[in-house]
From TrEMBL:
The lineage of its organism: Eukaryota, Viridiplantae, Streptophyta, Embryophyta, Tracheophyta. It comes from Arabidopsis thaliana (Mouse-ear cress). Homodimer. One of its GO terms (biological process) is regulation of ARF protein signal transduction. This is SEC7-like guanine nucleotide exchange family protein. It is a peripheral membrane protein. Transmembrane segments: none annotated. InterPro entries: ARM-like (IPR011989), ARM-type_fold (IPR016024), Mon2/Sec7/BIG1-like_HDS (IPR015403), Mon2_C (IPR032817), Sec7/BIG1-like_C (IPR046455), Sec7_C_sf (IPR023394), Sec7_dom (IPR000904), Sec7_dom_sf (IPR035999). GO terms for cellular component: cytosol; membrane.
Length: 1268
């Protein structure tokens, strides 16, 4: 009566009543007297406590009754959210129905009209209606019936069309059927969603359009599957709308919740635009959607409700799904049918309370027996605020001071009712106070003093956890801590700590140990263990660990009391403990997150114990994750955010056993999670596998890293077909393992990636192209492992294997994903800027080729060489798949950068060699690397160019430029390599190159020669400061006349001169070979360029050879350092001879070009020039006349002249023979210019008898006929 009356009186009266009951329950103060007998005092106290308990119970019953009557959702804080309007309109009949399978009879022809046709048509319609009726009752059986009777097709698309277009189908049943997870309904749902065209459709309008034909089911998981597919299909139709389908998925839920909030008149506190924008922050892959866009969504939804068509469907009774209510989602959609309450909505309304108080105060003359009742449960908050303190005090003092079973039972009931009311009303402080007090009264922190009332408190806490779990929130930590301590005490009673395993391997072992019973603890003498002694002696409730330093052993009395109290815990079995964790799957979405957070805290406190770490809560955490894995993805994502951080923290623990246990538990969860198929463009797997990546990258334990590699390997190989977004984390783990310091980890990861690539390559390329890029990047990383062996070579061979798989797969990108693919490639491979116009069939080649391109610069010669070979072999083998634009991208972004990098180093060293002979003369390792790389790469590059010349002929100038750069390189061997490659290029393009392309090649050779001249002249200027001593004194010079720097410079210049002569000789050889092969087809422009090359080289050679000062310095340096002199004379003779032979061949073989360019005149001029040079060295008088001042020679002049004349004899003979080869008309034309020279030759002394003989032939055969 008191309890019911308190709900109908003033708050101040309630306060007086509760305080009075509290004083009565506590009894008279100490030192005061009373007339009551002890029995009467005890009875009076118990009755007072009973009144307080009944008061709490009455408040709870009244609150539950009001909530049930008004069908509200769970209140949160001071706000009570209203339920949905059950009179939501139903779906109307869609346009068009399933057409009859039979055709209309032809009534215009009475003879053809058959009565059986009408019967068949009637039977068909009856059977179709039967199927529709069956579908409205049992949709799966209805679809099965319609398919079996051939009323609809068996394909998911036909069933989906039936659901969309058929009249008479119940919209709610359609929603339930589409939400099923069986194979056929799931495929039908996918086909149903895919049938919509959301392209260029606004997001809100797309939702309206989508939900017009059915009503979303009441079960949360069904809603989740449907909305997940909707978001995925909308993103596919509008790939540029959001970053990923996850954004559309979350935003869809936000729009539905906004629709519920805005258009349900039961909701008093409406969501504002600012609230809506704030709730959707960071949903676009961590970024915010534009605030203007979210504001526009808000305005349209608030203005016009999202609802299904409801014109013709018959109404039906609906009720809130139980699981939906447990999940806390009974209020998320106004598209789900609800029951309309008759009562007015209730809410926290201060004005209502003031009105009631004013009515009481305005009628003081009324009798106190007249009361005013209220139905708004918000008034209960004010009652609780004034009554919870006295209740807590009364229950706590009574249960603490009394061992009477009746009194303690009443107090525990009071605690249960108080927790229930305060929790449901969202009064956090009051709820936590009651729960904390109950947890302390369990006395689990001091088991030696445990009594039956403490065991009853444990039972009450377990009951609260099961009955009011949805509202405990932060109080879960206290409850789970109690469960952890119970398990700890049970564990101490089963086995001694020295023998127990904290990371059990087999469940059977644990069960066997539990069978030993509590007495086993005493028999084993385990009390000498410090952890057990600490438990026996007890501690405070708030102590984080029961393990403390104990100054002395426990007494026998304490041991006896402890064992007896442990036996009391037999009343609490494992079933009761496990029931709390198993019941977590029934908690709503908010409660399960709070439960998991609290369990993580308790588990962390168990694991952080330095001497007594336990894994009980960790094990229960894994079980809880198993229980709740099938929740909708929005809720599961929140749960996993908590679990992920916890697993990472524990996985990095210094306790190896604990870390191993948690990573293996994570593996089990992942195996179960990967059983669920992930739709395209979602990232749930990526988030789920993230802890493996973080621990792999941060763990210092080799055992943990090896375990992670094994776990990931097992997961992927066993669930490879279901892996989608998880591939990125898988490859990240293997990439980290590739650089590990332990060889066994590297080998294990490589074996796994090898098996994945060989056996499951199709699974990689079926996902996003970025996954394939991650795979290639992972393989490339293995080549950088310090454990070279065969791993590097095998990895490079795998890249070639990937190329074969790509060709076999016939890859074609989806047109709508093409732009995103390009963006992803540019982000992952920043060097591939030239691939702006990707071909759909070749986009997957970019990561492969780019990865090999990077390996070409590897410092290890073997890896570098193999990378070059595989790169070009892939291009050679599969280049026929590439289009011309793609070839252009390959050259500009992959091939040419390799050679440009090497060429830039060559140019840099060449410039250094010009300015600093000392630095350039050293052969460094980098120099050797460049020469080796260029030799192999140039040959492969030319092979590639020749094979695909039709597609890549635009790259010929770049290739020729590269080759010319190597020809002029100062490094040993690079000139020969470049020249041989250029010859190979010319030979390969003999029948393919056009006139302009040949011109490009010849101009490149000319440029190479010119650059060589300029660079060499800079080298020669380094000797300008060295004094020509013999020119001044005419005396010989010894070593002491030159310092070390001068000797070093002179030695360097001599060496460079020899290399310079070799380079120009090689160029002359190349040009000679080229014109001989094509002398009959060369155009005038080609011949002109080649003639310039021969002419400039010959003139340069003469310039060097006639520089007497330079020759003396060379001779001086070579004599001092015992070096061979540069063969300047021979070089000049060979250059002029090649030039003269070229002119002679062109005059003979290509008369048209010769006439156009007047090559005969050039030939006669060059022959005359050669004769003059010869006469200059054999006739000293002529030499003295030509020179303005005498030149002093180091060696005797006569000897030098004879030596030079002998060397020039062959060139002179060749020039005279060239004159003889001219026709008579040509000789007659030019005889005036060379006849005086012939006369000089006649009177000159010759060193060889061959000269007079040839001269005689010239005079007889050429001059004689002209004179005659």
């Amino acid at each position: 009566m008191t309890a019911m009356w308190s709900l109908q009186t003033y708050l101040k009266d309630t306060c007086r009543i509760v305080n009075g009951l509290l004083k009565t329950a506590l009894g008279p103060p100490t030192g005061s007297s009373t007339t009551l007998s002890p029995a009467q005092d005890s009875t009076f106290r118990n009755d007072s406590v009973k009144c307080l308990v009944n008061l709490a119970k009455a408040m709870g019953n009244w609150m539950d009754q009001q909530l049930k009557v008004n069908e509200t959702v769970w209140p949160k804080g001071s706000q009570v959210y209203a339920s949905m309007d059950s009179n939501a309109s139903q779906i109307s009949e869609l346009e068009g129905t399933i057409s009859d399978c039979d055709s209309q009879p032809d009534t215009s022809n009475p003879e053809a009209y058959d009565a059986s046709m009408l019967e068949q048509r009637r039977a068909y319609k009856i059977e179709l209606q039967k199927g529709i009726s069956l579908f409205n009752r049992k949709p799966s059986k209805g679809v099965e019936f319609l398919i079996s009777t051939k009323k609809i097709g068996s394909s998911p698309e036909e069933v989906a069309s039936f659901l969309m277009k058929t009249a008479g189908l119940n919209g709610t049943v359609i929603g339930d059927y589409l939400g099923e997870r069986d194979e056929l309904p799931l495929k039908v749902m996918h086909a149903y969603v895919d049938s919509f065209n959301f392209e260029k459709k606004d997001f809100v309008e797309a939702i309206r359009f989508f939900l017009r034909g059915f009503r979303l089911p009441g079960e949360a998981q069904k809603i989740d599957r449907i909305m997940e597919k909707f978001a995925e299909h909308y993103w596919k139709c509008n790939p540029g709308s959001f970053t990923s389908a996850d954004t559309a998925y979350v935003l869809a839920y936000s729009v539905i919740m906004l629709n519920t909030d805005a258009h349900n008149n039961m909701v008093k506190d409406k969501m504002t635009k600012a609230d809506f924008v704030r709730n959707n922050r960071g949903i676009d892959d961590g970024k915010d959607l534009p605030e203007e866009y979210l504001g526009s969504l808000y305005d349209r939804v608030v203005k016009e409700e999202i609802r299904m068509n409801s014109d013709t469907l018959a109404p039906q009774n609906k009720q809130v799904n139980g699981l939906n209510k447990l999940l806390g989602l009974d209020g998320i959609l106004n598209l789900v049918s609800w029951m309309q309450p008759d009562e007015k909505p209730h809410g926290a309304n201060g004005r209502l309370i003031r009105d009631i108080q004013e009515q009481f105060q305005a009628k003081p003359e009324k009798s106190e027996s007249v009361y005013h009742t209220v139905t708004d449960i918000s008034i209960l908050r004010f009652i609780l605020e004034v009554s919870w303190g006295p209740m807590l005090a009364a229950f706590s003092v009574t249960i603490d001071q009394s061992d009477d079973r009746l009194a303690t039972s009443l107090c525990l009931q009071g605690f249960r009712y108080a927790v229930h009311v305060t929790a449901v009303m969202g009064m956090q402080t009051q709820r936590d106070a009651f729960v904390t007090s109950m947890a302390k009264f369990t006395n689990l922190h001091c088991a030696a003093d445990m009594k039956q009332k403490n065991v009853d408190a444990v039972k009450a806490i377990i009951t609260i956890a099961i009955e009011d779990g949805n509202h405990l929130h932060g109080s879960w930590e206290h409850i789970l801590t109690c469960l952890s301590r119970i398990e700890h005490l049970q564990l101490l009673g089963e086995v001694s700590p020295s023998e127990k395993r904290y990371v059990p391997t087999k469940k059977a072992e644990v069960d066997d140990k539990k069978a030993l019973g509590f007495p086993n603890l005493k028999k084993r003498g385990s009390f000498q263990n410090p952890s057990v002694m600490a438990v026996v002696r007890g501690g405070s409730y708030d102590s984080t660990s029961l393990v403390k330093s104990v100054p002395k052993l426990v007494t026998p009395e304490q041991i006896k009391s402890f064992i007896a109290n442990l036996n009391l815990l037999d009343q609490i079995g494992n079933f009761e403990l496990n029931h709390v964790y198993a019941n977590s799957q029934r908690l709503n979405s908010e409660a399960i997150v709070s439960f998991v957070k609290a369990l993580c805290k308790v588990s962390m406190s168990e694991l952080q114990s330095p001497t007594d770490p336990r894994v009980f809560s960790l094990t229960k955490l894994v079980e809880t994750a198993h229980y709740n894995m099938n929740r909708i993805r929005l809720v599961w994502s929140r749960i996993w955010n908590v679990l992920s951080d916890f697993f990472v923290s524990v996985g990095l623990s210094e306790n190896l056993s604990v870390a191993i246990f948690v990573m293996d538990s994570l593996r089990q969860l992942s195996m179960k999670f990967l059983e669920r198929e992930e739709l395209a463009n979602y990232h749930f797997q990526h988030e789920f596998l993230r802890p493996f990546v973080v621990v792999m990258q941060k763990s210092s334990s080799a055992e943990i890293r090896e375990l992670i590699v094994r776990c990931v390997s097992q997961m992927v190989l066993s669930r490879v077909s279901n892996v989608k977004s998880g591939w990125k984390n898988v490859f990240t783990v293997f990439t980290t393992a590739a650089l590990d310091e332990r060889k066994n980890i590297v080998l294990l990861a490589f074996e796994t990636i090898e098996k994945i690539v060989r056996d499951h390559f199709h699974c990689i390329i079926e996902t996003e192209i970025t996954v394939y890029a991650d795979c290639i990047r992972c393989l490339i990383t293995f080549t950088n492992s310090k454990f070279e062996g065969d791993i590097g070579f095998n990895t490079i061979e795998f890249l070639r294997f990937c190329a074969l798989k790509l060709e076999e797969g016939g890859l074609v990108l989806n047109e709508k994903l093409k732009n995103n693919t390009i963006s992803a490639l540019k982000e992952d491979f920043s060097d591939t800027q030239s691939f702006t116009d990707l071909d759909e069939q070749v986009s997957y080649w970019i990561p492969l080729l780019t990865g090999l391109c990077k390996q070409v610069s590897d410092p290890r010669p073997a890896i570098r060489k193999r990378s070059i070979e595989v790169l070009f072999h892939i291009l050679m083998d599969h280049g026929h798949l590439f289009t011309r634009p793609f070839w252009t991208g390959i050259f500009s972004s992959i091939i040419l950068p390799v050679f440009n990098n090497i060429r830039s180093k060559t140019d840099m060293l060449f410039e250094e060699s010009v300015d600093s002979p000392s630095s350039a003369s050293l052969d460094t390792e980098e120099t050797t690397w460049d020469v080796e790389t260029s030799t192999l790469a140039l040959q492969l590059l030319v092979d590639l160019l020749v094979k695909f010349f039709r597609s890549v002929r635009s790259q010929l100038p770049s290739v020729v430029s590269i080759i010319v750069g190597f020809i002029k390189s100062p490094f040993q061997g690079s000139t020969g390599s470049g020249i041989s490659v250029l010859l190979h290029l010319a030979d390969g393009l003999a029948r393919s190159a056009s006139e302009d392309e040949w011109r490009e090649i010849f101009l490149a050779l000319k440029e190479a020669a010119s650059l060589t001249f300029a660079g060499f002249m800079k080298v020669l200027r380094t000797m300008d400061d060295i004094e020509d001593v013999e020119t001044l004194s005419g005396q010989s010079v010894n070593i002491g006349d030159l310092d070390d720097d001068s000797l070093h410079i002179m030695s360097y210049v001599v060496s460079r001169t020899k290399k310079h002569i070799d380079v120009l000789s090689q160029i002359v050889e190349v040009v000679s070979d080229l014109y001989r092969r094509n002398q009959f087809s060369l155009s005038a422009s080609h011949v002109d360029i080649l003639a310039d090359i021969f002419s400039c080289i010959a003139s340069h050679a003469q310039q060097l050879n006639t520089d007497t000062v330079l020759r003396r310095k060379f001779k001086r340096a070579c004599s001092v350092q015992n070096l061979t002199e540069p063969q300047l004379l021979n070089f000049e003779n060979e250059a002029y001879k090649s030039y003269m032979m070229f002119l002679q061949d062109m005059v003979t073989c290509n008369p048209n070009v010769s006439k156009e360019l007047d090559l005969e005149s050039r030939l006669v001029t060059e022959c005359a020039k050669i004769v003059k040079i010869y006469l200059k060295c054999t006739d000293p008088q002529q030499q003295e006349q030509q020179q303005r001042k005498p030149v002093l020679w180091v060696l005797p002049m006569e000897s030098d002249r004879v030596e030079e004349a002998t060397a020039r004899t062959s060139l002179l003979v060749s020039s005279l023979e060239a004159l003889c080869s001219l026709e008579a008309e040509s000789l007659k034309k030019h005889v005036s210019s060379f006849f005086p020279l012939l006369v000089d030759l006649v009177r000159t002394e010759h060193c060889s008898p061959q000269v007079p003989y040839v001269l005689s032939n010239v005079l007889k055969s050429c001059i004689g006929p002209i004179l005659a």
